[in-house]
Amino acid sequence: MAQDHRPLSPHLQVYKLPFTAILSITHRITGVALGLGALGLVYWLAAAAAGPAWFEIASALAGSWFGRLVLLGFSWALFFHLLNGIRHLFWDAGFGYEMGCARLSGWIVLTGSVVLTAIAWGVGLAQVGATP
Questions:
Q1: Rounded CA separation 132/129 (Å)
Q2: What local confidence, expressed as pLDDT, does residue 15 receive?
Q3: Rounded to whole angstroms, how far apart are CA atoms 71 and 77?
Q4: Distance, CA of 43 to CA of 40 (rounded, Å)
Q5: How many other CB atoms are there within 10 angstroms of residue 129's CB atom?
Q6: What whole-number distance in Å separates Cα of residue 57 and Cα of residue 52?
């Protein structure tokens, strides 16, 4: 076979994904995570309906360090997906297509999701600490 010395197309090690593409992929991943998290919510509600022993197990699982880490990730995914969904609604209305505006709105979504997660967890942890 003859050797073809044409250049290869950029591969993942060379090609850098644009910020908007990373946010788009993250939006899809958080959508799947929210679906899986909904299954966790159903488990928790079913445990509550099954009785105190089952609810104690579910609460212990959610209250463990791993459970709290999952809940933190779920909270962030919820706020990110919400804010990015609002961003997409503006795009559907024809606003924010310019590259500078798309990049800025992406940073607003990312920062806003982190800030809203921190606020929600701060308020939630303060409530837990305030209960006798």
A1: 8
A2: 74
A3: 10
A4: 5
A5: 7
A6: 9
Task: Work out the average pLDDT over 95-123.
Answer: 96
DSSP symbol at 93? T
Give how far the C-alpha of residue 67 lies from the chain's centroid of Cα atoms, to the nearest Å: 16
Quick check: 40 and 70 in contact, CB under 8 A?
Answer: yes
The pLDDT tens digits of the residues spanning 55-101 come to: 999 999 999 999 999 999 999 999 999 999 999 999 999 999 999 99
Q: What percentage of the chain exceeds 90 in pLDDT?
A: 80
**CA dist., res. 109 & res. 10, Å (int):** 29
Q: How far is CA 80 from the centre of its chain?
A: 5
pLDDT at site 17: 85
Domain map (residue ranges) of the chain? 22-130
- 79 token code pair: 């706020």
The larger pLDDT score, comparing residue 91 to residue 16, is at: 91
Dist CA 62 CA 121 (whole Å): 14
Instruction: Kindly report the CATH class assigned to 22-130.
Output: mainly alpha
Q: What CA–CA distance (Å, rounded) separates 65 from 72?
A: 10
